[in-house]
């Protein structure tokens, strides 16, 4: 029912996680949801990395483009009928920490959701990696 309300209330929406935290060497999946209108289902999907407020570098798109720095590390999975776009980045590096946009259409005037991806050094499983000395 929620999806129907969304579809009626807005011509188009796209949303995703605001913050994702992972660790160096790990992997992360950015899952974004969009209103499955005909245009949205067929339009170009992308993930880009913000370089500044005005500039966003495409990492991967549904036009079979993959940025050289992410070759072999990134994959996109699109489920148009359900309105789900998901991008997985593997073998994470500290330099992958940034704001990303998952979106539809063109980078600068399309629909997008902004995600803060934070990559920590050390293993998250212990829970101690970043917080030693703070009791």
TrEMBL record:
One of its GO terms (molecular function) is transmembrane signaling receptor activity. Its main location: membrane. CDD domains: IgV_pIgR_like (cd05716). Residues 17-120 form the Immunoglobulin domain. Keywords: Membrane, Transmembrane. The keyword Isomerase does not apply. It is found in: Membrane. The keyword Coiled coil does not apply. InterPro entries: CD300_family_receptors (IPR050671), Ig-like_dom_sf (IPR036179), Ig-like_fold (IPR013783), Ig_sub (IPR003599), Ig_V-set (IPR013106). One of its GO terms (cellular component) is plasma membrane. SMART domains: IG. PANTHER family: HIGH AFFINITY IMMUNOGLOBULIN ALPHA AND IMMUNOGLOBULIN MU FC RECEPTOR, POLYMERIC-IMMUNOGLOBULIN RECEPTOR. This is Immunoglobulin domain-containing protein. It comes from Naja naja. The lineage of its organism: Eukaryota, Metazoa, Chordata, Craniata, Vertebrata.
């Amino acid at each position: 029912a929620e999806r129907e309300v969304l579809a009626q209330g807005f011509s188009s929406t796209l949303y995703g996680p605001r913050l994702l935290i992972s660790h160096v060497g790990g992997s992360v999946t950015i899952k974004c949801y969009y209103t499955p209108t005909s245009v949205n289902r067929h339009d170009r999907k992308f993930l880009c990395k913000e370089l500044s407020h005005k500039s966003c570098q495409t990492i991967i798109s549904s036009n079979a483009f993959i940025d050289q720095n992410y070759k072999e590390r990134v994959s996109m999975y699109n489920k148009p009928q359900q309105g789900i776009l998901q991008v997985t980045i593997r073998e994470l590096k500290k330099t992958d920490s940034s704001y990303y946009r998952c979106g539809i259409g063109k980078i600068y005037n399309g629909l997008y959701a902004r995600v803060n991806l934070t990559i920590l050094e050390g293993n998250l499983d212990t829970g101690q990696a970043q917080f030693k000395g703070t009791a």
